[in-house]
Design brief:
The complex is a heterotrimer of chains A (274), B (259) and C (268). By secondary structure, chain A is mainly α. Chain A is built from eleven helices and no strands. The chains are: A mainly alpha (274), B alpha/beta (259), C alpha/beta (268).
């Protein structure tokens, strides 16, 4: 039993270290790329295959693909983390309020979330891009807009479950203020589940944002964004496969690490519930 | 009929039943009473062969009609359950499937133990419920667990347990989840089972119920028997723990803490 | 029993509470309930499950609001109070719940649990917590070092003592107990009753004690109300319960209890 517990922590730590390495790579991109710029075009060097100078080769404008992939982590990660942070905070807050107060508050919040669920994220992103221009910022807003509902639903059902339990009623009788009950009783009850959900969501948000950028509704050239890079490499797929292989691999690895991180986090937190 | 010899049961390293012995004759009622953690439930679970995970008999033997239950095969023991002996629990409702009718589960239970057509099994079930004084037994058969009150559920449990006229009925806190009025009715009905020559081994923390029903009461504490005997014996007993327990039971018109 | 010399703390007047059940039927949990609590006295409410006693307690502790009638605390109808005024009233009316394992925040230590009411009403500063917890634990006869423990590592009786410590922390005038001892062994129950009676004598608290066991209620209540299907069917002084009870339902309850000496006779 003890060994099993220890393994769980080891697995979690491994993936946590991987995730931190990825984040560090993004932060220290200039050091890693030894001063190579991800955006400076050198047309003479266009479409060079990987070699010792350009590890991942160069693209159609002669930009170093390695630098673009590393710098791309900055955009992709910050955008995905921003989305997760927004939907986590917004969804948790609204869900707790709906579950705790019930009645009209619950009805309004949950019907609004029903509306959001029935709205396809891509279509909304296209609409937002159409209205206020395509940018990574607008993609973040669009994705956030439709994704918070999962958190709200989870938080609401968890809160509703303990709302009428003896220990919460006891807190009310003891004269606790509403704010105190919300933060000291409701929030701790929903946090473990929602943190795990958020951790597993990082991967899917990366995919979602990369997808939007690929379609041209997210990051705009010349920004080094992985989805966008895949799109730019598409015409050269037959002749310069590295243009798609490396950004694709980057997406694959990062999503994998964050998904595993979420799963192992769930195992770790479950132990503490016992 | 049932003999427990020097039984010891452990969970892991911890001994929860320590040298328990008992002889129960046909048609008699024996009650094991005690507070939580005394090991009383473990004793009847051991007799029924249903020790919770990690529990095992470390010494002693349990003889049912002269045959050892512990040395026999699991299949033999399984066959005995239902036909030779059966068990009722604190809340029978929790033992039944909530999404199936009482009737379908009762009929299935009968047909597991005895080959008979469905219709006949249904009639047998209805007649058992009627004998447990459940009014409108046909309607009870068509009901779901949640539609019955606690007392009705417990009657269904007893009816099922008594279907094959077992020689031994094991009862684990059968009235503890019930209101006093319902408890009185169920206790009365269980006492009537003696007329059918069924022996009862019951576990309860309610000394009043124990005194009302039993030929012998065994008091347990921390896995050991501290006192045993009939009602009169216990009332006169000089055992300190018995005295302490009896003193703690609130009695109508008895000791009052305020004036 | 004459109440002339006694001080009225709380009064429920014609309190009615109805619920709409799932199949749109109106279910009356409490119907025209009128009861009075006196300083330093215990009112026992006896009745079977579903008789409406818990609903009544929820209204006394302002966890629920009656549809009709009023609940007076020192002459003031508290059912209509809102917000901060409602919260302020809570310090006079505290409660002990039935299930000792469900009535505490699973991640709070004993110290934080029993000082929570004091901090809520700013009776102490966070710095004085340790000292206050020590005093409260002493009052409920628990060792000091329990202060840093979690309730789930404690026995049922110990947990219920912690619950009592929390309830007496604010020195309320009324403590409401909902089957507060029915999850405990009889010997533990006895100790608990002795504790409650002692605390009541010291602080002159009015107690409402609800239980289905008439013998238990009778052993330490001053007055007993018998409740059935939302109505109070009989109200009488506890010492006269056995001799004076007239209502057939009370008699039936009286006769359904099992005692060691006598067997019950059921009126069928």
């Amino acid at each position: 039993m003890k060994r099993f517990k220890a393994t769980k922590y080891a697995v979690f730590l491994t993936f946590a270290v991987c995730a931190i390495l990825i984040i560090l790579a993004a932060v220290f991109a200039p050091v890693l790329c030894a001063g190579k710029s991800p955006v400076d075009a050198e047309l003479a060097d266009a479409l060079l295959p990987p070699d010792s100078h350009h590890w991942f080769g160069t693209d159609q404008l002669g930009r170093d693909v390695f630098a673009r992939v590393i710098y791309g982590a900055r955009i992709t990660l910050s955008a995905a983390l921003a989305v997760v942070a927004i939907i986590f905070v917004l969804g948790t807050l609204l869900g707790i309020l709906a579950g705790y107060f019930g009645g009209i508050m619950d009805a309004v919040i949950m019907r609004f979330s029903d509306m959001m669920v029935s709205f396809p994220g891509m279509v909304l992103a296209i609409a937002v891009a159409g209205i206020s221009g395509a940018s990574i910022k607008n993609a973040v807003i669009a994705v956030s807009f439709v994704s918070w509902t999962k958190y709200a639903r989870l938080a609401r059902s968890l809160v509703a479950k303990i709302r009428h339990s003896d220990y919460v009623q006891a807190a009310v009788v003891a004269g606790s203020r509403q704010w105190y009950i919300l933060t000291r009783y409701m929030l701790p009850a929903v946090l473990p589940t929602l943190v795990v959900t958020a951790a597993t969501d990082i991967g899917s948000m990366i995919l979602e944002l990369a997808g939007l950028s690929f379609l041209g509704f997210g990051a705009q050239p010349p920004a080094p964004e992985w989805g966008l890079m895949l799109n730019e490499g598409r015409p050269h797929m037959q002749t310069a496969s590295w243009l798609m292989v490396f950004p694709g691999l980057a997406i694959f690895l990062v999503v994998l690490v964050f998904n595993f991180l979420g799963d192992s986090l769930r195992d770790v937190l479950d132990v503490r519930k016992e | 009929m049932l003999e427990i010899k020097d039984l010891c049961v452990s969970y892991g390293e911890k001994t929860v039943v320590n040298h328990f012995h008992l002889k129960l004759e046909q048609g008699r009622v024996c009650t094991i009473a005690g507070e939580s953690g005394s090991g009383k439930t473990t004793v009847i679970r051991a007799v029924f062969g249903l020790l919770a995970a990690g529990g095992r008999v470390t010494a002693g033997d349990i003889l049912f009609e002269g045959k050892s239950l512990l040395s026999g095969s699991k299949e033999e023991w399984g066959k005995l359950r239902g036909m030779g002996m059966s068990m009722i629990f604190q809340d029978t409702g929790a033992m039944l499937n909530p999404i199936r009718t009482i009737g379908s589960q009762f009929v299935e239970y009968i047909r597991i133990h005895e080959r008979m057509p469905k219709k006949q099994a249904w009639e047998k079930a209805v007649s058992m419920l009627r004998r447990m004084q459940l009014p409108d037994s046909e309607r009870v058969m068509k009901s779901y667990v949640f539609q019955l009150s606690g007392g009705m559920r417990q009657r269904v449990g007893i009816a099922m347990a008594m279907t094959f006229q077992p020689k031994l009925l094991l009862a684990d806190e059968p009235t503890s989840a019930l209101d006093t009025v319902t408890q009185a009715e169920i206790v009365r009905q269980m006492k009537d089972l003696r007329k059918e020559n069924t022996s009862i081994l019951m576990v309860t923390h309610n000394l009043g119920v124990a005194a009302f029903m039993s030929d012998e009461i065994i008091l347990m504490k921390d896995g050991k028997i501290t006192d045993r005997g009939d009602k009169e014996h216990l009332l006169k007993s000089e055992n300190a723990y018995t005295g302490k327990l009896l003193d703690a039971v609130p009695v109508l018109g008895g000791k009052r803490y305020v004036s | 029993m004459s109440h002339e010399k006694e001080e009225v703390i709380m009064e429920a007047k014609h309190v009615t509470r109805r619920f709409l059940s799932s199949d749109k039927e109106v279910f009356t949990a409490c119907s025209d309930v009128s009861l009075t609590l006196y300083k330093g006295k215990t009112l026992g409410i006896a009745g079977e499950s579903g008789c409406g006693k818990s609903t009544f307690l929820r209204m006394l502790t302002l966890l629920d609001t009656p549809d009709k009638g009023e609940i007076l605390y020192r002459g003031q109808d508290i059912t209509k109070l809102k917000g901060e005024k409602r919260r302020q009233i809570r310090q006079h009316i505290q409660m002990v719940f039935q299930d000792p394992s469900a009535s505490f925040h699973p991640k709070m230590k004993v110290r934080d649990i029993i000082c929570e009411p004091l901090l809520n009403f700013k009776r102490i500063s966070p710095k004085e917590k340790e000292e206050a917890a020590r005093k409260l634990l002493e009052m409920v006869e628990l060792p000091e070092d329990f202060s840093g423990r979690y309730p789930h590592s404690m026995s049922g009786g110990q947990k219920q003592r912690v619950a009592i410590a929390r309830a007496i922390a604010l020195e309320p005038e009324v403590i409401v107990m909902d089957e507060a001892t029915s999850a405990l062994d009889v010997s533990v129950q006895k100790n608990m009753i002795e504790l409650i009676v002692r605390l009541q004598k010291e602080k002159q608290t009015a107690i409402v004690f609800v239980a289905h066991d008439l013998a238990l209620v009778q052993s330490f209540a001053h007055e007993i109300a018998v409740m059935r299907q939302g109505e109070i069917v009989e109200k009488l002084p506890a010492e006269k319960l056995v001799s004076d009870a007239k209502h057939p339902y009370t008699r039936m309850l009286l006769e359904s209890g099992f005692s060691l000496s006598g067997s019950p006779e059921i009126v069928s």
